[in-house]
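tool=predict chain=A
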Amino acid sequence: MERTELLVIGAGQSGLAAAHTARQRGIETLLLDASESTAGSWPRYYESLKLFSPARYSGLPGLEMDGDPDRYPSRDEVIAYLESYGQQFSDDLRMGERVESVERHPEGGFLTNTEAGSVYWSRSVIAATGHFERPFQPDLRGLEGFGGQVIHSAEYISPEPFAGSRVVVVGAGNSAIQIAADLAPESEVILATRSKIKWMSQRPLGRDIHWWLTLTRFDTAKVSWLLNRLPVSVIDDGLYRSAIERGEFARRPMFDRIDGHELVWSDGSREHADHLILATGYRPNLAYLNHLGALTTDGTPSHGGGVSTVVPGLGFVGLEFQRSFSSNTLRGCGRDAAHVVDRLRSIAPATSEPGLVTA
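tool=predict ok
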């Protein structure tokens, strides 16, 4: 059994930020990850993906992105950056270790068990597994009888497998718009949304939106204030909006039901579809915490700013809107990581477990 002061579960962007912060604070830390890469979910995102934030705003604590700071890095650039960032933890990483459960130790702290049979003791735990492995599928009437292929946007990689077919993308966020535009040159595409798309200019008054978000401190505003004021918007430099206006792909209201290969709208109109791509978001992937009683009935954590409100010594990073608008992003996870590490250090109970730092 290995022992450490802090165990971070998940070595993607949020987990790496937490481990870096802990190391800067002099806290002994181990990172576990189920994969063999510190790039987190990025290798599984679609190939055409680009960040909406410039490189100057997209680095993790202690390491800026190389190259033009005003460029919008590609998926593969982010993968290379995260793998490079992860090299600083080579002695503290345990890759290929999928966590099965986290339990309280009778004498204090936590026991973390992996599918490979490893056991780790730690005074504190930070869950940083994000939610990419738990795609959300909405309840669509007739979906089980759809005659074509249904995938979540998490499974979408490139447009080639869909060439020459009719594809309906469900969703009104950035991923849905990007995927629809990616498919449009080779496929007939409909974007189905429950409400009209709300657009946010990527460069208002000639400045990137993230410059304005930083200047106004909107990017770090408290979630409770944001959720009452912030509409869900698509950040666009004009490319995607003009693609819809030119008819490269169509936007239609959400269909009412599915009938075989056909989608049926409330006015009775029908459209044939070969594929449905559900760009409908994700839910937290934290089932390994079930033994702690740390989750609500729908699997979301009970927390305040990323610190568990029911299990002392347990924290979270990488949750959507964890503390701010930018929480679940490269540009925001470092701030959340610092907050959680400092809070855990101040409130986690001390333990007399031998061989461990307890101050």
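Residues 354-359 have pLDDT under 50 and may be disordered. The two ends are 21 Å apart (CA to CA).
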